[in-house]
Structure formats: structure tokens, C-alpha cells
Specification:
Elements lengths: L1 H17 L11 H13 L16 H15 L4 H12 L14 H30 L4 H13 L2
Helix pairs in contact: 2-3
Length: about 150
């Protein structure tokens, strides 16, 4: 029964995979096409949050791809298009945001978390060593001796 269901799912998905995604885009020259491909890979879909524009099927991503295509065809360079996207959507649209005060946590946060983790680990290990090295107090030794004497 499970195999039949899996086969039906595969058969149902096959026609969807055969449908063309979109019409081929035409560019004036290969440099424009390369710029377009680079931009849609380097800019993030603000709806999907962790997908590039090329990977996203969201409506906004389609609109942004269309805008980038139109701007590229109009002769705008990569910096102009990126500046337009950042002015409209903020630094979040960039996969590699610039190093500036409002992105310090983004850039240095992983190292900060690593440092905090190492400090916590060192503190825990140090506490365990101190507890282990301290040995038995006089009362504890007396109690241990008393307990070992009571054994038959």
C-alpha cells in the first residue's frame, strides 16, 4: 500500500517537473547576463530570509528578479542596482552586508558566542577540578572510617 502511494506521488509530480520555469531572458551582451546572474545569487529574498533570489519562488523574489533584469537591460551597473535594493530593503537584502556599526553583531556575533562558550566550559571544568581536588574533610574521613569498620 505504501509503495503504491509513493508511486502515485512520483507520477503526480512528474508533469510538474516537466513544465518550463519561465521564458529565456535576453540580454544585449554576455556581461549583462553575467551581472544579472551574479546579482540574483548575491541578493537575498526578504520574504524567504535565507534563500537567494535565484532559489526563491516567492512573489517578491520574482518581482525583484524582474526589476534586476529591467535595470540590467537599461544599462545600470552592479553597484547602482545593489544600492537601489539596499535603499529599498536595507542591508538585510545582502548576503554579505558591509561592516558598519549596525552589523557588528552579525559579523562578530559568532565569535562572541564561541568565546562565551569557551569561558563557560573553562569555568565548569575548573569548578569540577576544585571539587575533586579538595579531598575529604576530617569529619568525612572519620565517617568513612566508621562505615568501613562496621562492614562484616
Amino acid at each position: 500500500m505504501r509503495r503504491l502511494f509513493a508511486c502515485l506521488l512520483i507520477l503526480a509530480a512528474m508533469p510538474v517537473a516537466a513544465i518550463p520555469v519561465g521564458t529565456p531572458l535576453e540580454f544585449a551582451n554576455p556581461a549583462q547576463e553575467e551581472q544579472y546572474q551574479t546579482l540574483i545569487r548575491e541578493l537575498r529574498c526578504t520574504v524567504c530570509q535565507n534563500q537567494s533570489l535565484v532559489d526563491s519562488n516567492a512573489g517578491l523574489a520574482r518581482d525583484l528578479r524582474r526589476n534586476i533584469y529591467q535595470m540590467t537591460r537599461a544599462g545600470q551597473d552592479r553597484e547602482q542596482i545593489t544600492e537601489f535594493m539596499v535603499s529599498r530593503y536595507g542591508d538585510f537584502v545582502l548576503y554579505r552586508p558591509p561592516l558598519q556599526p549596525n552589523t557588528y553583531l552579525l559579523w562578530f556575533g559568532p565569535f562572541l558566542f564561541l568565546l562565551v562558550g569557551v569561558l563557560v566550559l573553562v569555568a565548569v571544568i575548573g569548578r569540577q577540578r576544585r571539587a575533586h581536588d579538595r579531598g575529604l574533610s576530617a569529619e568525612e574521613r572519620a565517617r568513612l572510617a566508621e562505615l568501613t569498620r562496621q562492614r562484616p
